[in-house]
Amino acid sequence: MSGFGALGLAPWLAAQAEQVGLRKPTPVQEACIPPALQGRDCMGCAKTGSGKTAAFVLPILQKLSEDPYGIFCLVLTPTRELAYQIAEQFRVLGKPLGLKDCIIVGGMDMVSQALELSRKPHVVIATPGRLADHLRSSNTFSLQKIKFLVLDEADRLLEQGCTDFTQDLEVILAAVPAGRQTMLFSATLTDTLNELKRIAMNQPFFWESTSEVRTVEQLDQRYLLVPEKVKDAYLIHLVQTFQDEHEDWSIIIFTNTCKNCQILNMMLQKFNFPSVALHSMMKQKQRFAALAKFKSSIFKILIATDVAARGLDIPTVQVVINHNTPGLPKIYIHRVGRTARAGRHGIAITLVTQYDIHLVHAIEEQIKMKLQEFSAEEQAVLSILTQVNVVRRECEIKLEGTDFDEKKEINKRKQMILEGKDPDLEEQRKAELAKIRKKNAQFRTQVRQTLEDRRQLLLRRKLQKRARRRHHQQEKPKVAGEKGQDLTSSQAGRR
Known about the structure:
Elements: H1 11-19, H2 27-37, E1 42-45, H3 52-66, E2 73-76, H4 80-93, E3 101-104, H5 110-118, E4 123-126, H6 128-137, E5 148-152, H7 154-158, H8 166-175, E6 181-186, H9 191-199, E7 205-208, E8 219-225, H10 231-245, E9 250-254, H11 258-270, E10 275-278, H12 284-295, E11 301-304, E12 317-322, H13 329-336, E13 346-352, H14 357-367, E14 372-373, H15 378-400, H16 404-418, H17 423-494
Parallel strand pairs: 1-6, 1-7, 2-4, 2-5, 3-4, 5-6, 8-13, 8-14, 9-11, 9-12, 10-11, 12-13
Helix pairs in contact: 2-3, 3-4, 6-8, 10-15, 11-15, 13-14
């Protein structure tokens, strides 16, 4: 017995894995599948593109085939796109079982999602926010009998930052049974995961990739040092170079904001590049459509924010370009992990400005290797610089005309409503808070001014006293001299 059969998987499941192209288990699959089948909690930390999804999908399907019921498994993931990708894996590998799955993510109709949940699917794949909304608002389904809870990209789900899932996770964890089997997977191990490792129950099994380097060997990692104001021209030049040399290559360009993502997409389209954007300001249907067009190579270039940085498996991606240097090394690891997946080769280029050198050092320290410099023809970049700057300005003006910032404000209001908050009331609170802060600032300024005035007054009085004392001391000898003269003259008169 070899391959997946040797790990304890049933022959039908091993055959199904082989049919979809999984012939030989990867290290993370070899390490995590046997303890998962034994019923142990499992935590796996491995490089991007190393087959972590199959490492939890396969044992879950085997256990489901032994005792099928719904809802059997809950998978939590930080992004909507990743949820759909995991569901696809479950469908393909669980086809012989007639597996029923349900995807619960934001941006879709809640009523139809609630109906799907009430039909008790075998597997629920969800983002924490939307699932927590369902748990708060309806009682048509129960998670009390689930056998498996999976946290994919666990570090992102458990970290506290701009998108904090803590409250939603508390609601979900209160709804699932204590006797469940828990599985956590991630490409980056954080302090939170280390803490979990110490407090985990149910004979926890922990596996971390032994490799010193945190990114795959097949990935060629480069940096390009560019002045801040010439960054866009270098990006256009790089895209043009790759398109000329390798017409069939797919490229992902990562940037830091939704607005920048939209502008870069408009710019590339102006230069007749087949590009599409993916960011959180787009409607969910638009996001799926953009991703589908990129996956099917209708568009060869995807410009994305970090919503596309985690877990997405697009085999045709040969190049990743970081338009901005990621602020955290783990974001860099996830971004560049979109290429060189499953043993394929790829290249990642990061545009580094004079302000980003310290970020590159932090990345190099984390991935345990030095980035190599990428050479670009400076003259070719300078020749298109003016044109690129003009096009960027045109795109910025065009975007301002589409009320892009206004849409962002509307999205914020929608999010508040979903969280059960009144946007107008929140606005009033913010305004009142701003007034209080303003009054406090004015009061502090007034107090400082009063103290300063008092200090100045005391200083003036002190100086006046000192001046009077000095004047008095100077006057004393004069008076004594005058008295002496008077005494001399009176004595002379007597004689």
